[in-house]
Design brief:
Length: 194
């Protein structure tokens, strides 16, 4: 558990500049966000998690670990955090992290709006990172991201090293207009086949 989860998460710290504001999407049990906050007290970390049970755990963990001055817990989805839909105001950071949350195309759609131009998404991925990049690179570009780059973090510290896909937000892309629904409730007005 130590290497597989905790050190795996701590290794990504080498990709984060000093004093950065980090948003961790889909924090779950606090990986990698809590680990980064412990390893890097210079960071300000917001843990973004939609499930009440998990946010309750995260709030308790933040208190018990004495991290309340540098770690905030936000209950909601990434898209709600980006738009301020929960009434808390929009969140934005220098770095957005995620671990075992979703494929790269969905991560880019959820995470890139949480950072400004030049901000970065650091997605902790497994051995199939290259395949995900090949499959989703065009979608990432359409969403305003640059070319995804794979980094190996923690070389010489953990084996195997942590695989991180980094995407720099090169441009801000506005929200896409919602598709109109027809009377039948389907997109594009196509009737349902019966």
């Amino acid at each position: 558990m130590w290497e597989r989860h905790l050190l795996n998460c701590a290794a990504v710290a080498e990709r984060i500049p000093e004093g950065a504001k980090v948003l961790d999407v889909g924090s779950g049990a606090g990986l990698p966000g809590l680990v980064l906050a412990i390893a890097r007290p210079d960071l300000t970390v917001t843990l973004i998690e939609p499930l009440a049970r998990r946010t309750s755990f995260l709030i308790e963990a933040v208190q018990d670990l004495g991290l309340a001055k540098m770690v905030r817990v936000f209950r909601g989805r990434a898209d709600e955090a980006a738009t301020g839909a929960t009434g808390a105001g929009p969140l934005s950071g220098d770095i957005v992290t995620s671990r075992a949350v979703a494929p790269l195309d969905r991560l880019a759609a959820w995470c890139l709006p949480l950072t400004g131009r030049g901000g970065r998404l650091l997605a902790l991925k497994g051995a199939s990172a290259g395949e995900e990049i090949a499959e989703h690179a065009e979608t990432v570009r359409r969403l305003g991201g640059g070319e995804p780059v794979v980094h190996q973090c923690g070389i010489g510290v953990i084996d195997p090293p942590t695989t991180v896909v980094e995407i720099v937000r090169e441009r801000v892309v506005g929200p896409r207009p919602a598709a109109k629904r027809s009377r039948e409730g389907r997109r594009g007005g196509r009737p349902r086949s019966r």
